[in-house]
Amino acid sequence: MPKLGQEPIRRAALVKATIAEVGATGSLAVTVSQIAKRAGMSSALAHHYFGGKDQILHAGMREILRAFTEAVRKELARANTPRAKVEGIIRASFDPECFEANSVAAWLNFYVQAQTDPEAQRFLRIYQHRLHSNLLAHLRPISATPEHHAHVIAALIDGVYLRQALREDAMGGAEAVAVITQTLDTLIGAAP
What we know:
Blueprint: H1 6-25, H2 32-39, H3 43-50, H4 53-78, H5 82-93, H6 101-113, H7 118-139, H8 146-166, H9 173-188
């Protein structure tokens, strides 16, 4: 088996440290030095691997998107019906890796960063497009107004994340899935 070099291990550690540091501080005003210290390495090494703070933050965003994409893939592979696939997308949104406190706080900060950073805007658009297109594809067979219902479900998911990040009426992942699934029942006219 080939030996994994130090670069991918260190890069992964820096990305994980970025999410943790942004989540813990609740701000993008973290320094490369803080991130590197959390990862157990020097800031010079962090700069060597990523170039600068923006690149490290972007790598953190990509990692959160990767985790979400992987969770959606797993859930969709298990589902057999359009309804089950929509529920799977909702569950994936609150997968423990995606809905972990630091990831939620980091994600909220990335939303803020997207207001002024074109690369962060691009990542956010990718996420929004994937979520919407996945919901829409599986709502079409079961909803009279799938476009509208996809927007409502996506807004609910984002709203739960916002409340979680602000610790205002925060709920656990299972509770969030239950609330949004109940709303899905109401939207598509399913029996409660």
